[in-house]
């Protein structure tokens, strides 16, 4: 049998299995391998980096996240990606906690399909790490950021290469941990291909998705919608909720698996554009569509730690507090600038509520009062010029956003400088907002039956003339005494 005949046979067998069986609902988070949250790559033993990754895995699991999709924007020609991936896989293997890892091969900046083949073989086929790698229906899951430019035939060849061990990888990476440093195994490997190919742009309609899907249907097992650059729930041409629903309809009609996006906020601080998510309301709109209408088999939170784009939900206090731990200079903000990257711990604290709701299909009972707040630390009219933010989309306003999960109706008294306003909040989970202005961070008092049951003060002030443009939400959460 010739090699080409083997390739065709292998691909045919790979595509025979139906993808229509209902998958267990799972939640993943997109992890930027170049953003090392707590520890730089300075320890020659690599042990401190492994410890830091263990810390993040445990943080994510505590929120209900099942695994990380590891963004690899480089590989053989940027070997630190291989080194960091090995450290992350080692952390997951040591914890042995059921947390899964899989790759999001990022084709924005030079990766080839040969790089994707190497990363799959090096870890999904690795004797030490294969149990940690996320498999579905007996296949190793591979997703992407872009990559559609290679075309269906090239992706079918990648699948077949992996399935029969063709085009073997011989790369050695001595800087990686021993278990991942040598040439990877070229044993046959079946993959479950779930790309994000930007069909129809950033907020596509169903007809554009279906037109592209027709070309890719025999090549992929499903798709992931990279839906962050929009205004979720807005109802217009920028509504990522509508696009997510369109993806779900098209893919499910074709018998394919759909992985939906969940995003907390999007400011491309290195791309001169900001999209208003109205605190947690935009994220809620994405969750509720997934829960009630589009029913994706999986969701991916974009992102765990992409600090430059503001999407991060990691509970880290301030990534610039950890010298050498990050590559954050592409925003134009000097490394080490304290207080610029705000804590998104408010989003971290709120996520378990929606994750449980999505996984179970039932709204969680609220047994403890909690208030989550979100605001930008500069007035709308201020413009420091750096980073540029000329393009602003959605209802951008000087607003304090509140999400409250309450056991019973309560009043929230908000003090901003000398002004105090009272918000009357119902029982259950709701979003509210009130105007905000330059001055100290807001102070909060949660009251029920005339008695203060919780109070807090936000740490981040709102300067009238900020040194740098800063459209990251400052967040926080508090509950009863």
CATH class of the largest domain: Alpha Beta
Helix content: 25-40%
Radius of gyration: 23 Å
Low-confidence stretches: 1-21
CATH topology of the largest domain: TIM Barrel
Mean pLDDT: 93
What percentage of the residues does DSSP assign to strands (E)?
A: 15-25%
Number of strands: 20
Structural class: alpha/beta
Distance between the termini: 73 Å
CATH architecture of the largest domain: Alpha-Beta Barrel
Supply the number of structural domains.
Answer: 2
List the helices and strands and how they pair.
Layout: H1 3-14, E1 26-32, H2 47-63, E2 67-72, H3 80-95, E3 100-106, H4 113-124, E4 135-136, E5 139-145, H5 152-164, H6 178-181, E6 191-194, H7 206-216, E7 222-224, H8 240-253, E8 257-262, E9 266-268, E10 273-275, H9 281-294, E11 298-301, H10 345-360, E12 370-376, E13 391-393, E14 399-406, E15 410-416, E16 419-425, E17 428-435, E18 443-448, E19 451-457, E20 473-478
Parallel strand pairs: 1-2, 1-11, 2-3, 3-5, 5-6, 7-8, 8-11, 10-13
Antiparallel strand pairs: 4-5, 9-10, 12-14, 12-20, 14-17, 15-16, 15-18, 18-19
Give a brief outline of the structure.
The protein is of the alpha/beta class and 481 residues long.
Describe this structure in words.
By secondary structure, the chain is of the alpha/beta class. It has 2 domains: 3-360, Alpha-Beta Barrel (TIM Barrel); 370-478, Immunoglobulin-like (Sandwich). It has 10 helices and 20 strands. It has helices at 3-14, 47-63, 80-95, 113-124, 152-164, 178-181, 206-216, 240-253, 281-294, 345-360; strands at residues 26-32, 67-72, 100-106, 135-136, 139-145, 191-194, 222-224, 257-262, 266-268, 273-275, 298-301, 370-376, 391-393, 399-406, 410-416, 419-425, 428-435, 443-448, 451-457, 473-478. The strands form 4 sheets. Strands 1, 2, 3, 4, 5, 6, 7, 8 and 11 form a 9-stranded mixed sheet that branches. It has a 4-stranded antiparallel sheet with strand order 17-14-12-20, with helices on one face. A hairpin with a 2-residue loop joins β15 (410-416) and β16 (419-425). α2 (47-63) crosses α3, α7 runs parallel beside α8 and α9 runs parallel beside α10. It is globular and about 70 Å long. It starts with a helix and ends with a strand. The model is unreliable at 1-21 (pLDDT under 50).
